[in-house]
Amino acid sequence: MVIRKYRSSDCKEIIELFYNTVHTVNAKDYTKEQLDVWATGKVELEKWDKSFQEHFTVVAVDEEIIVGFGDIDKTGYLDRLYVHHDYQKKGVATAICNELEKVVQSNITTYASITAKPFFEKRGYKVIKEQKVERQGVFLTNFCMEKNR
Prior knowledge:
By secondary structure, the chain is α+β, with helices and mostly antiparallel strands. It starts with a strand and ends with a strand. The mean pLDDT is 97.
């Protein structure tokens, strides 16, 4: 597995990985209705590409397949971290997170799903607050978490 910087040509594959990961990995912690509003399957490729370009974004590649991705902005906000369902618990998220955390000196914050919360806790992140996020009238629980540097 190789961790490399994001390229615009990765965007379509990353969006598919995002959708599939949410609908498989997160299905144990969220209802189908919640999963459908979280990852609708309808995203604006250009908007996501622009966001990835503006952030420090990396992808994990195994035999030419993107198996995970993550991004962090200049303020230390870790926005997205997703790993292909077939590559869970194989160190992919850890490798991506290691790269993301290297590029900021400040505290790091993230909004972790119920599913991701234990992963971030093992990395030293602390829950600041539990929150309900509303998407299309449906509420999803996540956790504002912070890692002090």
